[in-house]
Amino acid sequence: MNKVDLKNLTQEQLIAYVQELGLPVFRGRQIFSWLYRPGINDFSQMTDLNKELRATLADKAEISQLPVAKQEKSKDGTIKFAFRLNDNEIIESVLIPEEDRNTLCISCQVGCAMGCDFCLTGTMGLTRNLTPAEIVNQVCAVIKEMPEEMCHGDKKNSCINNLVFMGMGEPLANLDNLLTALDILMDQRGLDFSGRKITVSTCGIVPKMKELGEKTAVNLAVSLHSVNDEVRSQLMPINRKYPVEQLIQACRDFPMPKRRMIMFEYIMIKGLNDSDADARELAHKLRDIKCKINLLPYNECPGTDYQCPSRERTEAFQQILRKADYTVFIRSSRGSDISAACGQLAVKANSEKGEERGA
Predict the structure, then answer these.
(1) Mind listing the pLDDT tens digit for each residue in 263-305?
(2) Is 89 a residue of the active site?
(3) Contact 112, 168 (CB under 8 A)
(4) Is 159 one of the catalytic residues?
(5) Model-level pTM?
(6) Given 116, 251, 301, 342, which residue is catalytic?
């Protein structure tokens, strides 16, 4: 009999599960709150449950964890975690420490089907979606691995301040499991993250964007990279299905919480999308959208002909956008020396050795 992984269940789903076992509602809440306490990995540790109930749970259910297959630390402090899944596949998460906060970049799929031309993850193809437990357990595992001096306060999530779904895979292509994971991450009895501290990035699966906004109150980031259909289609095949105008309209229609802004991610590639004309067109297309813009100088990777523009070119692009009254940041790459920077996550599992590769 396959055991039920309780970390795949929201609090309401866990309540329904224990009711099927003939237990009262409060037991579901009780068990759910135990699952996300530090160091809990066995039903025997749930000391306010009687022995009979603990034995029943041990027989019918399990509390999953993600074992760390490999951990690498960059010279800039960024830490990349490779996690081995039950089917021997490997995924990666990236912890980005800063002076006042720690951000964890999470994966939502094994590989990716989107095939973006600048991204190494796309070269893997898509193997499968991650389960809600595999998404949430990335956070649990990193919290467990983090040194005490990186944590602030006594909350369950005090070691990590921000979560960004910008790792391996397209989050909206795994929306159902993502929504379940977000429910668990934001539940007060779960990991108790605020929706303001969680950002979900998408390459532009237009029909799923509205559903995300209607069903959860997290931040939205859109991987844009060009507002010219020809250029964007070269970089991102999804643009052939949902071209720029459809994507921009979906952003205008996105049910955004008050005092929030959409974050547009724009990877700058020398000679392709970094001209003054590109900046002016971008400013024009995004008019009337409450947004911020992140400029990301391209992380050069073996096997591609794309190049990073000069700092001067990037700053000139930024100034044009700022003069058009946009808030614009130039984001420096973190963890590039361990292949942990944007677009560099790519792994493969060997059934015997579990070998991993980066860029």
Answers:
(1) 999 999 999 999 999 999 999 999 999 999 999 999 877 667 8
(2) no
(3) yes
(4) no
(5) 0.91
(6) 342
